[in-house]
C-alpha cells in the first residue's frame, strides 16, 4: 500500500513538472532554473511595458514602441539576468526616453526603470 502511494505521488509530480515552464502564450511566470528563450523574454517584457502604459505608469506614447531596442544577459546582484531596453523617441521627458526591464534567466520579472541600474 505504501509503495502504491509513493508511486502515485511520483507520477503526479512528473505530470506537474511538465507544465512548470510557461509557453509563449501563457502568463510570464516561470519555475525552474532553465534559461528562457530570448523571444519569450522579449514577449513578456513587451506585455509588461504595455501594462505599465495601461496602468498610467508610462505615458501613452510608449504604446507605439513595439520592439526591444537591445536584449542582453548581464551580471545581476545574485546571478545572470536578462536586461532589455526599449527606446521611445516621442517621450516628452528625454531623460526617460529609454525603459529598462530586468528579468531572471528563467524569465521572471525583476524590475523596470529608466536608469538601467
Structure description:
β3 (98-104) and β4 (109-113) form a beta hairpin. The protein contains two helices and four strands. The radius of gyration is 18 Å and the shape is globular. Mean pLDDT is 82; it is low at 1-25. Strands 1-2-3-4 form a four-stranded antiparallel β-sheet, covered by helices on one side. The protein has helices at 2-18, 38-54; strands at 70-75, 80-87, 98-104, 109-113. It is of the alpha+beta class. Helices cover 29% and strands 22% of the residues. It has a domain at 36-60 and 67-117.
Assign the structural class, choosing from mainly alpha, mainly beta, alpha/beta, alpha+beta, or little secondary structure.
Answer: alpha+beta
Taking the sheet with the most strands, its summary is:
4 strands, antiparallel
Q: Which band does the percent of strand residues land in?
A: 15-25%
Number of strands: 4
Widest sheet: strand ordering? 1-2-3-4
Q: Could you tell me the mean pLDDT?
A: 82
Q: Shape from CA axes?
A: globular
Helix-strand topology string:
HHEEEE
